[in-house]
Design a protein that fits this description.
This protein is an alpha/beta fold. Helix content is 34%, strand content 17%. The protein contains eight helices and nine strands. Strand 7, helix 7 and strand 8 form a beta-alpha-beta unit. Helix 1 packs across helix 8, helix 4 packs parallel to helix 8 and helix 6 packs parallel to helix 7. The relative contact order is 0.20. The protein binds nicotinamide-adenine-dinucleotide. The site of nicotinamide-adenine-dinucleotide has 28 residues, from loops.
């Protein structure tokens, strides 16, 4: 493992453009469970509450669950060591961007500035009628659903629901960076969600070396990944940082 970490650090230092592609796994050590797997959120909740067409017809019912998952349960989550190492990497010039599937805002909270949020962000709420965007912290969620002060429309969390498209700017920036990448670090993603999983695959096809950090194997591990650093994101990134700075 030590040799693989050293080799990864060397590749990152030599790379002229490095991206990190993150999934739910990087936030597990912040206390946010992934959706899938043994302790996944979908064992407790039905994905229907995040399906756009169901939500549009049952907004008030869906908001009960949305509040519980994203504004009660996720509210106390803070960035962990893995998020902070990525922020340090960006600040020191060895990481160009983070492309995240996560909606928890933790990369920004850790200090990263260039973050392409492929699935949006739960810390913002949007009016589907007038497009006004609010900070989630403007609401206390005692009364749900939250409503637009301009037109009374029910606000929707500004992350994508099942059945919605990827935000255009994040999509374009993510694939543009994947094309440029010489190194792509995949952290904590099964690679089962499309089109997000095409981002590291695009980087690979464009010639990037793929470093994967995950305690398990994913759908990237055989076929896409060049170096698998098998372990928890915080522990592996802490080791990597020792050879980077
Ligand atoms: P996933 O839930 O499909 O898989 C999580 C992956 O993380 C697994 O491969 C697992 O082995 C790995 N993992 C678990 N603990 C880890 C650790 N400590 N360090 C590193 N890796 C670890 O995740 P996904 O591929 O991101 O897809 C899930 C979808 O659900 C995404 O689209 C995302 O938008 C959404 N989601 C977001 C959050 C969040 O914002 N934090 C949480 C749950 C789900």
């Amino acid at each position: 493992m030590e040799l693989l970490i050293k080799e990864s650090a060397r590749l990152i230092k030599e790379s002229k453009f490095t991206i990190a592609f993150t999934g739910a796994g990087i936030s597990v050590e912040s206390g946010i469970p992934p959706f899938r797997g043994e302790h996944g959120l979908w064992n407790k909740y039905t994905p229907e509450v995040l399906d756009l067409s169901y939500y549009l017809n049952h907004s008030t019912e869906c908001w009960e669950y949305i509040r519980e998952i994203f504004y009660d349960f996720f509210a106390d989550a803070h960035p962990n060591k893995a998020h902070f190492v990525l922020a340090e990497m960006e600040a020191s010039g060895v990481l160009n961007s983070v492309i995240t599937q996560n909606i928890d805002n933790l990369h920004f909270e850790a200090g990263n500035k260039v973050v392409h949020e492929f699935h949006g962000n739960s810390k913002k709420l949007k009016c589907l009628k007038c497009d006004r965007v609010y900070g989630a912290d403007e609401f206390d969620f005692a009364n749900i659903p939250p409503k637009c002060v301009d037109d009374g429309e029910i606000l929707k969390p500004d992350f994508i629901f099942f059945g919605e498209g990827i935000p255009q700017e994040a999509y374009a920036n993510s694939f543009a960076d994947a094309e440029k990448a010489e190194v792509c670090i995949i952290i904590g993603s099964t690679g089962e969600v499309t089109p997000a999983s095409y981002v590291p695959r695009t980087a690979k096809q464009a010639g990037a070396t793929i470093i994967e950090i995950n305690p398990e194997e994913s759908s990237f591990t055989s076929g896409v990944t060049d170096i698998h650093l098998k372990g928890k994101a915080s522990e592996v990134l802490e080791q990597l940082a020792k050879h980077l700075f």
